[in-house]
Every structure is written in C-alpha cells, then in structure tokens.
Specification:
The complex is a heterodimer of chains A (239) and B (149).
Chain A (H helix, E strand, L loop, with lengths): L6 H33 L13 H27 L3 H32 L8 H21 L4 H15 L2 H11 L9 E2 L2 E2 L3 H45 L1
Antiparallel strand pairs in A: 1-2
Helix pairs in contact in A: 1-7, 2-3, 2-5, 2-7, 3-4, 3-5, 3-7, 4-5, 4-6
Chain B lengths: L2 H23 L4 H4 L5 H7 L7 E7 L5 E2 L5 E7 L4 E7 L11 E8 L5 E9 L7 H16 L4
Classes of the chains: A mainly alpha (239), B alpha+beta (149).
Keywords (chain A): Cell inner membrane, Cell membrane, Cytochrome c-type biogenesis, Membrane, Transmembrane, Transmembrane helix, Transport
Protein name (chain A): Heme exporter protein C
InterPro entries (chain A): Cyt_c_assembly, Cyt_c_biogenesis_CcmC, Cyt_c_biogenesis_CcsA/CcmC
Chain lengths: 239, 149
C-alpha cells in the first residue's frame, strides 16, 4: 500500500484510470438513467415519482461511501502522514458535499408528493443533513489556515470524528421511529422489484465511477497546484 | 514506541471508542429521538390530553369512515398491538389509504381519541410495478377464499 502513496507513482496510474472511470461512468449513468426514467415501470403506490430513486439512492449511498473514504484518508493522513492521503481528503470533500446535497434535494422533492412534506426533522433526514455539514466543515477547515498542512490536519481530525455519523445515518431508521422508510436493499435481499432494481444498480455503479473520476481529477489538480507553489517558493528563495 | 505507532494507537482507540459509544447510546435514545409515538408506546409515554405529539402506525384495514360533513374522517392507527381512534378534518395525502403507514400531528382528547391537525403518509420499503401489486393482491384474495381443510 505504501508503494502507491508516492505521488509520482500515483500520477502515473491515476491518469489512465481517470479516463476509464470517466468514460465508464458516463456510459453507465446515461444507460441506467435512460432505463430508469423511460423503460422501468412506475410504482403501484407512488406512480411516476418513484423514478427519483435512480438519482436519490445512488447519491445517498455515495455520499456515505465518500465520507467513509474521507475518514480512511484522514486516518492515514494523521497516523502515517501520507501526503497523498491529505490530498485525497481535500479532493473528495467538495464532491461528497455535492452528492449529499443532491441526495437531500431529490429526497425533498420526492417527499412532497409521497409523504406530503418537503422536510421533517426525523432521525434519517437530520443525520444526512449533518453529513452535508460535516463535508462543509472539512472544506472550511482545509482552507481556513494560512498553512495548508495545518488546515489539512484540522480537516482530518474533523473527518475522523465525523465517522461516528455514518452508523447513525444507517441505523436511524431502525433505532428510532422515523418518517423515512427502512432500507430496501439489505444482505437478505431486496424489496425493490427486479424491473426497478437493475436500472438502479446500473445508475449507482455509473455514479460511483463518476465520483471516482472526479476525485482523481481533483487529486491530480491539487498535486499540480502544490508542485507549482513549491517551485514558486524555491524560485523566490534563489532570486 | 515510535511516534507513528503512538499515533496509530491513539487514533485507532479514539475512533473505536467513539463508534462503540454511539452504538450503545443511540438505540437507548428511542423516546427522545423518535419522530412519532407508536400506539403501543403511547400508554407508557405518559402523554397528557392536549399535549402536542405525533402518532404513527398503519391505518387499520376497514377503519376509515368519512363523516357526513364531507371533510372529517375517522380511522384507527394501529401497530398490531394497540389501535387508537383518530379524528381529522382536511385534505389527506395522496398515499393515505387503509393498510398504509400514516403519521398524524395533533393531541389526545380526554376521551382517548387523537385529534389530528395534519397527516403525513409514510411510505414502506416495498417498490413494485402496478401489475405485480395486482397479482399479489389477487393471489392473497384467492388464498383467503380457498376453504381451509
């Protein structure tokens, strides 16, 4: 693992992976959404509004998976001080923020016709809103210090402690009475009909690839920016 | 111990302790963190008449009665353990129907009826096309109609 923590080796591998994940993601998202929005059947109760799950559920899964990755990166950054781990955390946070915001937004638009309200303060909705704020906190801390190393360290500490929110999101619908329904897809199987499940999985796989591609692009850009400022500092010293 | 190992132990212990604490504490907060009372919780909850609460459960099959004024409905909310009569005047959500989940905002009357000011429909975790739902309903009806030997 330490072998790949070297930024130079990372860049060699990241470049082709960015291309393939981006292409694969675009194809899968386009296919999954076309299948879900135009070919899949409506729901027996919700009618056509069920189609928002092809965006909402991937966003929900990936905003949590993204946060888990932030936590792992923060752990590696704090314990082993891998420069790449810091870069990964800072690169991933805004993408996770966008995904969780889209999860909240699409859920809210679905909630109005289904539940009869855009928003309630139940355990699931509130904990996902906290997830969004945690992402914003990581972004703010990473940028909030004159010394970027100090900012990344503070952001890592927050990301690590924020991990505690993930089991709360996951189990909120089981521990407490909530308006949000419990999970449909569990280890025991799925209570979503096959005709809706497959387009959902295709779209979720596609959005995962897109998240990976966007993260790799941001990581490469951040590494390039660090190199540039290091060179500028070197030049300023010699001049 | 090298500083690296010290940091590993510290960060690992902190994260583990935090997660374990949450896993232990959160389920115990059921009363405080829940969005609504189920009918069976209500007796134990010591709710006084007039206190603003939410009551949630399933709309009991066959319990919905439209009143002659055309706007008031009476129904019972059940969690299969207890059922509580509810009175509500107003528009019901699209998904409001017998056998489906509902959350009512309101307060208890002294006579034990829940006076609802607003209703939210609760959706369950099942998603299926209308044909599948029809087929399921038909199979269930046939199973009921078949004489038990």
């Amino acid at each position: 693992m330490h072998r790949y923590a070297n930024p130079k080796r990372f860049l060699e591998i990241a470049q082709p992976i960015t291309m393939w994940t981006l292409l694969g993601g675009l194809v899968l998202v386009a296919g999954g959404l076309w299948w879900g929005l135009f070919r899949a059947p409506p729901d027996y109760l919700q009618g056509e509004s069920v189609r928002i799950i092809y965006i909402h559920v991937p966003m929900a899964w990936l905003s949590m998976a993204g946060y888990l990755s932030c936590g792992v990166a923060a752990f590696a950054a704090l314990v082993w001080k891998h420069p790449l781990a810091e870069v990964a955390l800072v690169a991933l946070a805004p993408i996770g923020a966008v995904f969780s915001a889209l999860c909240l937004l699409t859920g809210s638009l679905w909630g109005r016709p289904t539940w009869g309200t855009y928003w309630v303060w139940d355990g699931r909705l509130t904990s996902v809103l906290v997830l969004f704020f945690l992402y914003l906190g990581i972004i703010a801390l990473a940028r909030g210090y004159d010394d970027p190393a100090r900012g990344a360290k503070m952001a890592s500490v927050l990301a690590l402690f924020g991990l505690v929110n993930l089991p709360i999101i996951k189990f909120s619908v089981e521990w407490w009475n909530t308006l949000h329904q419990p999970a449909s897809i569990t280890l025991e199987g799925s209570s979503i009909d096959q005709a809706m499940l497959w387009p959902l999985l295709a779209s979720a796989a596609g959005f995962s690839f897109l998240m990976a591609a966007a993260t790799l692009m941001r990581m490469r850009a951040l590494i390039a920016a660090r190199k540039r400022s290091a060179r500028a500092a070197r030049l300023a010293q010699t001049a | 111990m090298k500083p690296k190992h010290q940091r590993l132990a510290l960060a690992g212990a902190a994260v583990t302790a935090l997660i374990v604490a949450v896993l232990l504490a959160m389920p115990a907060m059921k009363a405080g963190a829940s969005f609504f009372y189920a009918p069976a919780d209500l007796a134990a909850a010591n709710v006084t008449p007039g206190q603003a609460i939410r009551l949630g459960g399933l709309v009991e099959e066959g319990s919905v009665e439209r009143q002659p004024d055309g706007i008031t409905i009476h129904f019972r909310v059940t969690d299969r353990l207890e059922a509580i009569p509810v009175r509500y005047a107003g528009l019901v959500p699209d998904l409001f129907r017998e056998g489906q989940g509902v959350i009512a905002d309101g307060s208890m009357d002294p006579d034990g009826t829940f006076a609802a000011d607003s209703l939210l429909a609760k959706h369950d975790e099942n998603y299926m096309p209308p044909e599948v739902a029809d087929a399921l309903a038909k199979a269930e009806a046939e199973a009921k109609a078949r004489p038990v030997l």
